[in-house]
Amino acid sequence: MRGRQWVALFIGVIAAAVCIRLGFWQLTRASDRRAYNDTVHARTASPPVPLSELALPGDSLQYKRVLVRGQWDYEHEIALTGRSHNGSPGVHIITPIVPNGIDNAILVNRGWVYAPDAAVIDFERWRVEDSAAFIAYVELFPASADGDPRSTRSPRSWHRLDTAAIARELPYPLEPYYVVALPDSGALPAADRPARLGIPAIGTGPHLSYAVQWFAFATIALIGSAILIWRDRRIG
Q1: Mean pLDDT in each 10-residue stretch from start to end of the chain (236 residues)?
Q2: Is the pTM of this model over 0.90?
Q3: Which of 37, 149, 180, 207 supports an S-S bond with 162, CB 3.0-4.6 Å?
Q4: Is there a contact between 171 and 103 (Cβ–Cβ < 8 Å)?
Q5: Are 127 and 74 a contacting pair, CB within 8 Å?
Q6: 173 near 102, Cβ under 8 Å?
Q7: What are phi and psi of 132, to 5 degrees?
């Protein structure tokens, strides 16, 4: 073969090798996602445990179902702004609860309520019983970020849950996680309490389709270089 034919072959093989490597990387990510989904499904399907028995470390707590009993602290609840529901603007109400059987308080996402500006609500409108017993799932606080997490619209409106900043506003220590009240855990009609949130949808992601695309690109690179070599040999 001529020099330019070797160049075409070299470029085609290198491009195909890179694409194949990326394709297998996407397959690995798809496999990891399936394993993660299996873990989440197992946790959300398991019977709820009392908070006092929640002893697993770190991120192994996430999505685990728990039974929460305690006293609401409505004086320190906040609104998590910019949360939509069925296309309507609103907020999530985050209320501390002092649970039975553990020393620290826990933040509870009680659910979504309508707010025209997605920031300011009448908190008293959504206060229910002083004590509560409900089923929830454990969620982890997001990673810390720069900037003030509070909204300028209201002192009780927050853009995001910042555990350190919220803890400074409270008269008691917080657990290093919060919980989300599940839809089947409230005795009051939906109109009389925030709309409860379900377990977040967990999909498989686009990794398999991306893998197919990378393998297709590898095939195109090899076929393309072969065609270039074939045409060059016919002309020559």
Answers
A1: 69 88 90 83 83 70 89 92 90 91 87 91 88 89 78 84 87 90 66 80 81 90 81 68
A2: no
A3: 149
A4: no
A5: yes
A6: no
A7: -150, 155
